[in-house]
Amino acid sequence: MSFFSVVYYILASLAYLLIFPYLLFKLRNPKYKVAIPSKFFLKENPSFKEEGIWFHTCSMGETKAIKPLVDEFKNNFPINISVITNTGFQEAKKLTTNVRYLPFEIFLPFWIKKQKVLVVMEAELWYMLFLCAKKRGAKTYLINARISDKSYASYKKFSFFYKKIFKNIDKIFAQTQIDKKRLLELGAKEVEVIGNIKLAQLPIVTKELKRVDEVLITAGSTHENEEKLILESYKKEFGKLVIVPRHPERFEKVNLLIEEYIKDKNLTYHRFSSNESFDSDIILVDKLGELNNIYAISDVVILGGAFENIGGHNPIEPAYFGCKLISGKNIFNQKSLFECVNNYILIENEELRSTLENLQNLKGAKLVQKGDINPIIEELKGL
Question: Is 62 a catalytic residue?
Answer without folding.
Answer: yes
